[in-house]
């Protein structure tokens, strides 16, 4: 994006990984919802299409805000006029993971490779976490006994409510056709940080344990539980003893920690200090500008601190990382050229498009009643194995929606939320399957 806006400016990308994520097949579903694929390419391929970009395979260890320079691990000093920090997040591992080879954290492509390799020798596994990565591992995993440890009362609580979780529940032990597709990977020399997972990281991934076939009811869910102790006994056929907060003890071969991320920044700052939020994210304003005027930050590494639009809130997702990256580029260019810029429209409403348990999932606005207190109502429509639709309504207006399956309602819901149209005259008929609400509100 920077290269597009500033084709005559020199741009330097410092990357720990020789792989970069490239967005392809962009499909606009609505004004603010976009579907896209993410493919891995060699970082150096950027220079083929963008001659003003230089790629340096290294890591930044120091930022000098006085001299406007960064120092890399290999002792390179790079001067800058503007700097954007996009170092993402690192896995927030369970405390017992420290120096334990039987605990694997899932965040980037390298950690997925490690997980797949270890799983192939495993018959019994414990998975900790309740977000998108944990849910997709659970959905894809085969030929292994799985214990899913979640601290919530229902599955996939990061994204959905108990009703949607019940809808997904039927998919847990269904087998899916084996895919002949192979995961494309580039080989890297030496140990480096892997490229971050894209939104469709699991699409062609085949995850198999050491059992000859999948067992009926091979997934056991432990609700409202956390790991309180983890010990290893190599004399045991399942060497990892996991003790849960409910007192249950599970013997397993491997523990997967998929419990979210924390901002990733391991560099020293010399001069004017960057401000950090409680979760250690780099504080940014409405232009993604940090407390140092010519330094910007975007994605999982930053913490937005501006006054959010009513129907938007930050969440560590690929969707928002891409939006922030594009907007940071525009902001930097506007600053460089002394131009005014308005905040991007994508920050008017929270949107996220993904797949969970094989279903298309669209989240819009305050889809779980975030920021609404207790004074709102919910309308539901569910067809088992087909679709789940949830409307969050306050004072006769739609404020959020969860759309699971091929509902074709995303544009209608987006319009209803953005325009705050009064839908109270329609009552519960707004979700009557015999009424095509698109005809009224598109």
TrEMBL record:
Domain FAD/NAD(P)-binding, chain residue ranges per copy: 28-174, 218-325
MF terms in GO: oxidoreductase activity
Spans through the membrane: none
Keyword entries, A-Z: FAD, Flavoprotein, Oxidoreductase
UniProt cross-references to InterPro entries, sorted A to Z: FAD-bd_OxRdtase, FAD/NAD-bd_sf, FAD/NAD-binding_dom, FAD/NAD-linked_Rdtase_dimer_sf, Rubredoxin_C
Cofactor: FAD
Keyword Lipoprotein among record annotations: no
Superkingdom of origin organism: Eukaryota
Flavoprotein recorded as keyword: yes
Signal peptide: none
Domain spans labelled NADH-rubredoxin oxidoreductase C-terminal: 355-420
Family of this protein: Belongs to the class-I pyridine nucleotide-disulfide oxidoreductase family. PYROXD1 subfamily.
Name of the protein described by the UniProt record: Pyridine nucleotide-disulfide oxidoreductase domain-containing protein 1
């Amino acid at each position: 994006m920077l290269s597009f806006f500033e084709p005559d400016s020199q741009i330097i990308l410092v990357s720990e990984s020789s792989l970069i994520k490239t967005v392809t097949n962009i499909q606009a579903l609505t004004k603010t919802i976009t579907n896209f694929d993410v493919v891995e390419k060699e970082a150096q391929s950027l220079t083929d299409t963008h001659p003003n970009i230089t790629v340096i395979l290294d890591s930044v260890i120091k930022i000098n805000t006085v001299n406007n320079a960064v120092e890399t691990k290999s002792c390179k000093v790079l001067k800058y006029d503007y700097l954007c920090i996009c170092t993402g997040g690192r896995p927030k591992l369970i405390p017992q993971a420290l120096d334990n080879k039987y605990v694997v954290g899932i965040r980037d492509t390298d950690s997925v490779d490690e997980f797949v390799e270890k799983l192939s020798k495993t018959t019994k596994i414990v998975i900790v976490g309740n977000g998108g990565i944990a849910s997709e591992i659970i959905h894809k995993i085969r030929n292994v006994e799985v214990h899913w440890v979640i601290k919530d009362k229902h599955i996939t609580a990061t994204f959905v409510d108990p009703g949607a979780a019940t809808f997904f529940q039927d998919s847990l032990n269904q087998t899916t056709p084996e895919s002949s597709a192979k995961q494309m990977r580039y080989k890297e020399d030496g140990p480096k940080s892997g490229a971050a997972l894209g939104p469709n990281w699991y699409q062609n991934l085949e995850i198999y344990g050491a059992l000859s076939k999948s067992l009926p009811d091979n997934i056991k869910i432990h609700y409202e539980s956390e790991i309180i102790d983890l010990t290893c006994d190599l004399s045991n056929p399942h060497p990892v003893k996991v003790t849960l907060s409910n007192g249950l003890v599970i013997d397993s071969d491997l523990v997967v920690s998929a419990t979210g991320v924390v901002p990733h920044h391991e560099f020293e700052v010399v001069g004017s200090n960057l401000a950090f939020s409680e979760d250690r994210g780099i504080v940014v304003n409405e232009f993604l500008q940090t407390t140092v005027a010519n330094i910007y930050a975007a994605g999982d590494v930053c913490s937005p601190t501006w006054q959010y639009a009513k129907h938007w809130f930050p969440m560590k997702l690929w969707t928002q990382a891409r939006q922030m990256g594009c907007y940071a580029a525009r902001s930097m260019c506007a600053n460089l050229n002394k131009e005014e810029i308005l905040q991007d429209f994508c920050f008017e409403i929270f949107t996220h498009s993904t797949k969970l348990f094989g279903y298309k999932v669209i989240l819009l606005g305050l889809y779980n009643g975030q920021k609404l207190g207790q004074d709102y109502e919910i309308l539901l429509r569910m067809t088992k194995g087909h679709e789940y639709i949830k409307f969050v309504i306050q004072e006769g207006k739609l404020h959020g929606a969860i759309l699971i399956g091929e509902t074709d309602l995303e544009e209608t819901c987006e319009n209803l939320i953005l325009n705050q149209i009064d839908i109270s005259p329609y009552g519960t008929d707004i979700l009557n399957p015999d009424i095509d609400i698109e005809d009224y509100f598109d």
